[in-house]
Amino acid sequence: MPEDSDDRRPEDELREMLQRFLSGEGPIDPARLAGAAGMPSDPAQLQALMAQLQAALARTEDGIDWSAAKRQALAVVQRDPGSVTSAEREAVQRAADLAAMWLSETTEIGAATGLTMLSRQQWVEATIPVWQEMSEPVANSIASALTTAMQEHAPEEAQEMIAGAERILRNVGGTMFAMQLGNVVGQLASETVAGGDFGFPLLEEAAALLPVNLRTAAEGLEIPEDQVRIWMATRELAHARLFRHARWLRLHVLSSVREYAEGIRIDVDRLEELAESFDPTNPEELRHALSTGALIPPKSPEQLEALARLETTIALIDGWVDAVTEAATARLPKRDAIAESVRRKRASGGPAEKAFGTLVGLEIRPRRLREAAAFWRTVTDAVGPEARDSLWDQPDLMPGAADIDDPSRVIARLQGAGELDEMDLALQELLDDAERAQGEADGGAAPEDGPTER
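User: That's the sequence. What structure does it adopt?
Assistant: Structure tokens below.
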């Protein structure tokens, strides 16, 4: 070590150490580091990883650099951006126009919503803020826990260096997480057909289709492509119309996600085991722990409750969309085959969805979609579409999990809309009794003779 090392700050030493690692002069192999970030070890990806981590070292502010997630997602998309012909775009637009007309016969809400066609790159740019919001609590927990574990298990002679470089450690760790998230979102861009595919409101009041992925989905179904386009456009427009009508719903869903995610805590014991045995030349164990969700312990009772509420909300949203789409596409000969195929795909999810679930600890394919769709069909048959859709007018009217199992109370309430409910009737009876008693006390005057003085 140079003679003037005592005059240097501990964080400068750590920065130089990490820079040596990143330049290949230290014990960390860049290819292994790419593996820890969940990225392929091809030269272009290695260069991107090194650039992102070098930028993390140079940052002066604390916190996670989420722009790394966006850059990584766009880099993944760039490997296979796909292409769409003008004829395909025109066919999708015709399908959307027909879908909008059919939907207007089925529901009156949110009718002004149009449809946008997005490339994979545009979908990443439009949705990355929501993916970030869903992931941020976990990323912060991992960065904090990792820093704490390193401080507790580092040799005594390294304590001063680590204590003076906590911000650098958090920045580098956060960048690794952000790049892993970006890798997953980039892969999701090749699986996504429509903006509402995941139930979560990734796009604000907007209907969007990805024609390049729609073509692939249609090829796999062995159903006439024009029918697939119409069905997909109908479902996406229904989803967007719902969020346009119930403007409170997007914030409600994202707040529920936040409530659940902020309850996630990192398994400190497991992290300490990793810290004690961590080999800088082989970060595969750390990558495996992140990518399999091993650092996220079983859900607490509070988390299970928050997750159940969130799943109910998403199931009701998707169930309503499914029921409305089914009614609107009654003229399509292959409607049921398309719906069942898409339903099976949604139930299983793709590799990137599963990767997001393990990385963040939140499955993006909630259960009970079939039951929720059956609930909406039953309500529609009983009271009609207008009364059915009134349940989205404000948050306190939205059905709950028990209503999905037994729609009778919701139906009874909608059938009695405009009439007095039980509490109103009881209150009215008390007021009538009081008026009669006051009338008798005043000499037997009937209540209808005039207002009673009090």
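The chain has 21 helices and two strands.
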